[in-house]
Specification:
Oligomer: single chain
Strand order of the largest sheet: 4-5-3-18-21-22-20-28
CATH class of the largest domain: Mainly Alpha
Strand content: 15-25%
CATH topology of the largest domain: Multidrug efflux transporter AcrB transmembrane fold
CATH architecture of the largest domain: Up-down Bundle
Radius of gyration: 34 Å
Distance between the termini: 82 Å
Low-confidence stretches: 1-23, 736-745
Largest sheet: 8 strands, antiparallel
Structural class: alpha+beta
Number of helices: 29
Length: 992
């Protein structure tokens, strides 16, 4: 940044060293660049000349270039000896991942823990590890002071990087480096004091010794430093910095608007930052006061990251809202730092190592995965065959476009390292089904032109020209939704928005550009002389608008019934993704199959559960023995029964396996004499007791059991005796793990010493131990018992709703602009709201009917709204909007410049678009019905929503959006109403 002399920059040598380790040679890179960026255009020229169509060389080259670019991630994997599928990053449901639970370092925290603080922590960590929103990462609160992070398909290096991102505090601060000239008295006190902080008479920190990051030395311009020995034994340096005593005037990262990558004066990587207005003012005041003296003396600005001095550049002039951080950064460090700074500092520090760390097997069993994959393949083939049979040569063109569309979407998703779940892959096939719409619009326009007697070339030209506007309008409105969802929505919604955006852009490119190119080439070469197509709908003359009252009554009735069912179900409408619940980790004596375990658990817990197969990070032999059950059960659900959720889960768990061959691991406990510890009158010491177990246990597991038992102790009146559980310290006395045995967990013991503080009465400790002993003797051991929050925190749910509302406003604004009438936009939004409410009600109704004979016949389940289902709802919005805009576009065309909007005009438009509406619905329904029928439980709820959405979306564009448009346009007193009345009078006169 101009105005700062960055003396601590200059990492070019380090970057060169990093690059030198690359195994890819320069020639290999040049070859890749040639093949990807040059060869396609050369081939385009060769092919065009061979066809004697030189004017098409650039177009052919561009199509080949896009295909090669999209295929590059897959070709790269093959070239490096890997499976091409490695280019696709699979989600937790298909590939498993890593599960880590981090605990807040309460001892190192200055803030008191609260739900708000923990929610902010969850948000900051989510933004750090998933800044793009394209990865299926789960971050949620567990218990009162822990945060769970689940990352799909992460390898060891990835896990270490993520740990660093999560635990790094991310605090940014700017202070002035102390110097002997301006701060003589403070320097003298600091040099005499061994303490880190120097305080004034009011106890406020006015200066502090801060560790220098790296090996830089700060001795120029009378700066003050002292040597230190770091925790790892290496030698370092501390520099004294002046701290602004008024916290409100400190220049910190809380004013940061954005951090971005830049380069310093030597061309080395650096981080540029921008402050908001308040931050810019404070920064300007700080740097203005410390400008160089007239005699040439320079002061230094300390740039502190996580409390360490990253650099200390000379201040040359006043700096406002923008600046730069330099240092010996590698490219990876720059990326990590940007993620941390842009995500925001953590409210409270986390302990550097996770409390627990497991590898998770795929959440969906192999049979479920196979069913889903088979359904996806069959659905894709069905669409291709249908297009071939119905449109013949045009169907071939459509299928080429669809295949290229799929390649382009997959390639783009691979480039941005997006995560594919089973519903996501099904949604990709659905994108193909919906992408057919653009081709159908074009083909039906060509059919119309042919029926008017146009030549083939003219029919192709006019067909594409007339369909172009409709396709752009229909897709741009959906693109607006995707952009708004990405900017404002939650991580899960942003992932969907990225896929939607890429899918729409690629479908427009393939249909309008690639499809047109193929038609032009074949027509110019006389390889086709006519276009034969089937026709399921001829010329119709149905009076749709006349049926608006029946449709309105039917829709209102359906919505009312649905909303009543939704209200009656209450929390039962939502799955674990939105409700949270209780999670327990248990162990079997022998290795088990996850599908078998899930089936046995469902008999007791129902379908509202998630089962994860765990593997200890340092014990490969533990695979198949450890499982984590998540259920929506919580204490509120079991309050009427007079028990806690944990007790209910223990009972159900034991019952699920009592008559099966799968034996849960049980551990019993004995305890010795409780001894009172010696203390002083002012500081009583509490008590201790030795605990002995029949098998190895973690101290955290025993602590959970003991605290549960203490919490259940009651007063004589039945109230809880200990509202706040007294502090308990557990330490292992002996371990069965042999020295050098790396497969056993080092924190598992058969004997432990428990120490309780003076707040816990000895008799109560004994009561708790007896209760704990009884529980362990009668139930299976649970290594972990905790409540967990929903995957989507409350503020994330609010932001998702806000994103949807803003999307609706944006849709109205765009359609208002394009159609010159706000009524078109309002009518489209009414249809969208109608579709979402109807489908929401039918989901609840389907769950209600699932236990009846009709439900069994239709394959209904106890559907609950989860994240894949939310993606389905968003897809419905896109589909319905697309359908409605196509109809509105034809209404605008039929109406022309006529100031009136009659029911005849609307009916004509609906009849003219009927063929396209039905064909798009049929192709999309083919996909979603196959996914629903044979896709398995992994995508069953997702597919159910889509089946309903396609049917309801088609219905609403005809019977809801169009009648609402007529009603809004012809509202009493409007100019359109007067023009319509006059037009209708003239029509009736001419008929008579």
């Amino acid at each position: 940044m101009t105005g700062i002399d960055f003396h601590s920059a200059g990492l070019i040598a380090a970057e060169v060293a990093d690059n030198a380790t690359s195994k890819v040679s320069g020639w290999y890179i040049l070859l890749v660049i040639f093949v990807v960026f040059v060869l396609p255009f050369i081939l385009g020229v060769i092919i065009a000349r061979a066809l004697k169509l030189k004017e098409f060389s650039r177009k052919i080259g561009l199509v080949l270039f896009t295909a090669v670019i999209a295929a590059t991630p897959f070709i790269w994997q093959i070239a490096n000896g890997n499976d091409w599928r490695n280019a696709i990053r699979l989600g937790i449901d298909l590939a498993g991942g890593s599960n880590m639970v981090f605990e807040v370092d309460e001892a190192g925290s200055e803030k008191e823990l609260s739900n708000d603080v923990m929610d902010q922590m969850v948000g900051a960590i989510g933004r750090r590890i998933n800044p793009s929103g394209t990865e299926e990462v789960t971050v949620r609160k567990v218990g009162q002071n822990r945060i769970e992070v689940i990352v799909p398909g992460a390898d060891t290096e990835d896990v270490q990087r993520i740990k660093s991102l999560i635990t790094r505090l991310g605090s940014l601060e700017f202070d002035i480096v102390a110097n002997r000239r301006d701060h003589a008295s403070i320097v003298a006190r600091a040099l005499e004091s061994p303490r880190k902080d120097i305080r004034d008479g009011q106890g406020r920190v006015i200066a502090s010794w801060r560790e220098v990051n790296g090996d830089d030395s700060y001795t120029e311009d009378q700066m003050v430093s002292r040597p230190i020995t770091r925790e790892d034994g290496t030698q370092g340096e501390e520099v004294l910095v002046i701290i602004e005593p008024n916290e409100d005037r400190r220049v910190t990262g809380k004013y940061l608007v954005r951090a971005r990558q830049s380069t310093d004066q030597n061309g080395a990587p650096a981080v540029a930052f921008t402050f908001n207005a308040r931050g810019g003012t404070l920064f300007s005041q700080l740097t203005s006061k410390n400008r160089p003296s007239k005699d040439g003396f320079h002061r230094h600005l300390a740039v502190l990251l996580d409390g360490k001095v990253q650099s200390a550049p000379r201040l040359i002039t006043t700096i406002g809202s923008e600046g730069q951080i330099t240092g010996r950064f590698t490219q990876k460090e720059i990326s990590s730092l940007l993620n941390v700074l842009n995500a925001g500092a953590l409210e409270v520090p986390l302990k550097p190592e996770p409390v627990s760390e497991f590898s998770i097997s795929p959440l969906l069993g192999s049979d479920v995965q196979e069913k889903g994959k088979q359904a996806i393949i069959i659905a894709a083939i069905a669409v291709i065959v249908f297009m071939l049979i119905y449109y013949r040569f045009a169907g071939v063109v459509a299928n080429i476009c669809l295949t290229l569309n799929l390649l382009l979407v997959m390639g783009c998703m691979s480039f941005i390292d997006a995560t594919f779940t089973l519903p996501g892959l099904a949604g990709l096939v659905l994108t193909i089904g919906m992408a057919v719409d653009a081709n159908v619009l074009i083909f039906e326009r060509i059919r119309e032109e042919k029926s008017r007697g146009s030549s083939l070339r003219m029919a192709i030209n006019n067909g594409f020209a007339r369909a172009f506007t409709t396709i752009i309008d229909a897709n741009l409105t959906t693109l607006i939704v995707a952009v708004v969802l990405y900017i404002i929505g939650t991580d899960q919604v942003r992932g969907f928005a990225v896929t939607l955006f890429i899918g729409i852009v690629m479908s427009m490119f393939t249909a309008l550009y690639v499809g047109r190119l193929i038609f032009d080439v074949f027509e110019r070469k006389r390889w086709i002389s006519d276009l034969k197509m089937m026709s399921i709908v001829g010329n119709t003359n149905i009076d749709f608008i006349n049926k608006r009252k029946i449709a309105a009554f039917f829709s209102v009735l359906l919505i009312l019934i649905g909303m009543v069912v939704v209200s009656s179900r209450g929390k039962e409408n939502f799955d674990i993704d939105f409700t949270g619940g209780t999670m327990v980790t248990f162990e079997f004596e022998d290795k088990q199959e996850i599908d078998t375990i899930r089936g046995l658990l469902q008999k007791e817990f129902g379908n509202s559960l998630t089962l994860e197969q765990l593997q200890l990070s340092n014990d490969p032999g533990s695979e198949g023995r450890y499982f984590r059950l998540r259920t929506t059960l919580n204490d509120a659900d079991t309050e009427n029964e007079g028990t806690k959720a944990t007790d209910s889960i223990r009972t159900k768990l034991d019952k699920a396996f009592e008559a099966s061959a799968q034996k849960l691991r049980k551990v019993t406990m004995d305890f010795g004499e409780i001894k009172k510890l010696e203390g002083s009158e002012n500081s009583p010491a509490g008590s201790e007791v030795e605990l002995t177990f029949s098998g190895d246990l973690k101290t955290s597991t025993v602590e959970t059991y003991l605290k549960e038992a203490i919490a259940s102790i009651e007063n004589a009146d039945g109230s809880e005796k200990y509202e706040r559980i007294p502090e308990i310290q557990l330490s292992g006395v002996s371990s069965d793990s042999k020295e050098g045995d790396t497969t056993a967990e080092s924190n598992r013991f058969k004997k432990m010493m428990a120490q309780a503080g003076p707040d816990l009465l000895v008799n109560d400790l004994k009561t708790a131990l007896v209760a704990m002993q009884e529980v362990m003797a009668t139930t299976a051991i649970l290594d972990e018992v905790n409540s967990f929050d929903s995957s989507v925190a409350s503020e994330m749910q609010e932001s998702a709703i806000l994103a949807m509302l803003i999307s609706l406003v944006a849709i109205v604004a765009y359609i208002w602009f394009r159609f010159q009438r706000i009524t078109f936009g309002l009518a489209a939004v009414v249809a969208l709201i109608h579709d979402v409410l109807v489908v929401l009600g039918l989901v609840a109704l389907g769950a209600y009917l699932s236990h009846t004979q009709l439900g069994l016949l239709m394959g209904l389940n106890d559907f609950k709204i989860n994240l894949p289902m939310i993606a389905a709802f968003l897809t419905i919005v896109g589909y319905s909007l697309n359908d409605t805009i196509v109809v509105f576009d034809r209404i605008r065309e039929v109406r022309g410049k006529n100031p009136a909007l009659t029911t005849t005009m609307v009916n004509t438009s609906l009849n003219q678009t009927m063929s396209r509406t039905l064909l798009t619905s049929i192709t999309t329904l083919i996909v979603v019905l196959i996914l629903y029928a044979i896709g398995g439980e992994g995508i069953h709820g997702f597919a159910y929503c889509l089946v309903l959405g396609v049917i309801v979306g088609t219905y609403s564009s005809i019977f809801i959006a169009s009648p609402v448009l007529v009603w809004l346009m012809n509202r009493p007193g409007s100019a359109t109403a007067r023009a319509t009345q006059q037009s209708e009078r003239q029509t009736s006169v001419s008929k008579s």
